[in-house]
C-alpha cells in the first residue's frame, strides 16, 4: 500500500490503552510511512489536572510498545516524550500531518500558527471519529478508570 505521507504524528496520554487509542494508532500507520508518537510525560499529565489517576509513563510506554509490536509497526515508530501540547510538531519541519480525534482541531490550529512563524508548512489534519462504547457514549480513559466500561467499550456498570 502506498502511503500518503512520509511522516505523521499523533500524541496523547494513552492511559489504559483502549479501543479508541488503537484505532487512532492504526489510522496513523495507514496514512504514514513513519509515525512519531508523542507520549505525555508524568509531569505534563500532572499539569493537566486529570480527574483520575494516570499510570506512570513507563507503564503507558510499555503498553504502547507492546501494541505496536503486536500490530507489527514498531520499526516504523518513534516514541517521544511530550512535555507540552505540541511536542515535535512545532520543531520538526518534516512532519506532514497530524492524526487526531475530531475534538483536536483547536490544537492543530495552534500548532500551525507556531509552524508558520518558523517557516514550516502547515500540518494536514486527519481526523478519526470519536469511538463509542456499547452505551453510545465515547470511550475514554476516565470512564475506564471509573469502572463504567472496559478498554473495548463494553459497559461494566449501570451509571445513571
Q: Any guess at the CATH architecture?
A: 3-Layer(aba) Sandwich
Shape: globular
CATH class division: Alpha Beta
Share of residues in strands: 15-25%
Separate helix tally: 5
C-alpha end-to-end distance: 45 Å
Parts with pLDDT < 50 across at least 5 consecutive residues: none
The total count of strands amounts to: 5
**Range of helix content:** 25-40%
Q: Report on the biggest sheet.
A: 5 strands, parallel
Oligomer: single chain
Question: What series of H and E elements makes up the topology?
Answer: EHEHHEEHEH
Q: Count structural domains.
A: 1
Q: CATH superfamily, called what? A: HUPs
Which value, in Å, is the CA radius of gyration?
Answer: 16 Å
Round the mean pLDDT to the nearest integer and report it.
Answer: 92
Task: Write out the strand line-up for the largest beta sheet, numbering strands in chain order.
Answer: 3-2-1-4-5
Record the SSE blueprint:
Elements: E1 5-12, H1 19-31, E2 32-40, H2 42-47, H3 57-70, E3 77-82, E4 97-101, H4 105-117, E5 124-128, H5 141-145
Parallel strand pairs: 1-2, 1-4, 2-3, 4-5
